[in-house]
Batch of 2 targets.
Target 1
Amino acid sequence: MEIKTGEYRIWSEESTIHFEGTMRLSGMEAYEPILKLMDEVLDQSPDQINLNLLELEFLNSSGINLLARFVIKVRKLGSTKISVKGSKRIPWQSKSLPNLNRLHPDLTLSVV
Amino acid sequence: MQEVIGNPEVVEHKQIPTFRLQLFEGPLELAWKHCDITADFLGKLHAVWSGQADTDANEIRHNVSYIINEMLENAVKFSCSPCVELDTGLGHKKFLLRIVNAITRDSAMQFQELLNKMEKGDPSSLLIERLEFNAADPNLTGSGLGLLTLMSDYSVEFFWKFAETDDSEFINLEAHASLPLE
């Protein structure tokens, strides 16, 4: 599964979802196809889902809403673990990703 | 109508203006693209002007880009004026931003209600609360999420001025923001 535009690319490999580029879409409606891709991975009931954000340079607050919504869904499901990998090179990740841990304390967050 | 909300100190210090830009109205899809391009450009420009070394310059570029994009997206979404005006400047260890546009009186009233709630609460708790609300109801989006991320994750301070215009239906909104650069 892959979504690719001139600005960003999202694709899944087994239970890892990779994000790269700049995602500044105009609200949740615009993010729906991406959430659908993420849900399709979750629907396969993997033991663990990994979000790889190492190459996601920019994300707007609607995109943060997307990540939060997915993480809360995983938390409520209870049967799948989730890990999020980010990069210290990309300032928004150090600043905003810890919020995902506050929403889901069992989430494994690594910003390296 | 309330005339000001927020921290007046945001506009009290001397701003060193470095840039002025006017974005003219157009289709939302194009205007949205303008936000991204403008944010990207001004992020790079202020990183260079800051005269900081690589790591700090990268931080400034990304943080300035984030705040401009969020503030412009808000302005573009609600603006009723033919253009959105943007001033930026570097203060002492601060990036300063002023955005001016006109919005409807109804939008202004709703926005004031939201801002007053944010002023009274802890931004970090309000952010988590908002993310939980939005997840519980997929029809809910936004509602100040961008401003809350700026206040909670970037320690941005705001000052908002609301002024009557010649047309009683519209209110002139002046948004001032101060982003710490360390």
Target 2
Amino acid sequence: MKHAVISCLHANLSAVEAVLGDIDRQGIETITCLGDLVGYGPQPNEVVELIRDRKIETCQGCWDEDIIEGLDACDCSYPSQLAERRGHMAHQWTTENLTDENKEFLASLPTSIRRGRSLFVHGSPNSQHEYLLPDMDAFAALERVEMSGADTLFCGHTHLPYVRELGNGSIRVNIKNASDREREEIKMTLPIRRIVNAGSVGEPRHGGVNATYVIHDDIKNDVEIREVAYDIDRTCEAIIEAGLPHVFAWRLSNGFEFAELAEDASHVCER
Amino acid sequence: MIERWALLSGLMGDLETYELIQKDLKNTHGDITLFVLGDVVGPDKNCDALLKRLVNPHRGDLKPHCIYGWWEEQLLAESGYRGERKADALRLNKGDDAVNALMNAVDPYYLGWISSLQFGFVELDCGLIHGSSKDVGDILTIQTPPLTLLDRITRLNVNRLFTARSKLQFHLELTDAVVDSKVKDLNGKRNQEHTLPKRAVIGIGAGANYTLYDVGSDQTHFLTVGDVTKSRGRGFA
């Protein structure tokens, strides 16, 4: 059976509608959402209500958590102080515009969903704020999946869609000195595990402008990364109309998430 | 002169043991740096005399470089140094009596000093921590999965991690680590074989059991108070 995994919708209704349409056209009935329904985009209520109406099983993302807890997303995720200020503006705007009912819905979401040997999270099993990037240390990546008790870990948060398979691993453990044991050496085989990142529906960071999501075929055990074009102008106009920073529209239409990256190389996390 | 680190933990107010270790170290060859990896306080005896000695070392004492441990974390939390968090882990495991005993074992005068202690040290390519880079209460042993050990080392970007929380003494090396990574994204597919240099986790013991580490030769010596005097022939003294 095929199922679709979507993530990081970021209040971009046009993109969400386009992706759900693409999923529907393929006759896929099971959809899992990895959170970040809100933030940056201009239609948080519409997106939350669409997910609720469609009864899409969803786990909570970092923006969803931050909006209901009154926190700000970890500043580590902002590439500069300017980006951070704009992020704070988006946070404040979303807080003011999201209905209490939709906030309650976000508050009710679980931080993870387990289905058989698959685990679905927003960032990592450790934290909604941890980025599992495709080039992160392979052993650390393997640890995240293995320690969660899953064979396949589905995540989002990075906005970069990818499939990473980790296998053929081994390690030698050498107890060189221990007060209560003889010297001992063991060669251990490491488990085969997979990380699937669904990318982002509403705020792509893969260099292009299309929304992305993934389809998992659990019979073939295959993962397809899908790109979907959507009406970007419609979202950009809504961003301007809502009074959100214009750069949010500019980067959606140009495919550059880190538009402000070079402006402040000395920026450090406040936390 | 041989550069050595002396690493101890888990004194829990036991000044007598600390004095015996200081005595041992005076009889040990080498240029010794003393690291105290937490749990200098505990609920079972009054800790003020030991704290006084650590804060104001006697003439001739090796100067202790201290970090905080699990018991200090509980004490600081209960004393309001961790925001709204209290000594929940201690309360859960040992009940209110243990929390009260801990609070009574330490004069509030020393809370300022304890709160100034760091989570850990990074010396050369080594991390010196009470639990692990993940948490002060993290217990690492030779039974801990190798991937977990690697993760705790990688988080600190070091090659060796000295830990005390398990109270055990061990020197475990992780070598010949290899894993294949196949990534598929919108740009295509790429394969890479990942390897790691030798990494190690060293449990330093607790109380009367402490560790000497020869920095130049990467040798650990697991000692118990009084061993130095007995083992002059083995090269410690």
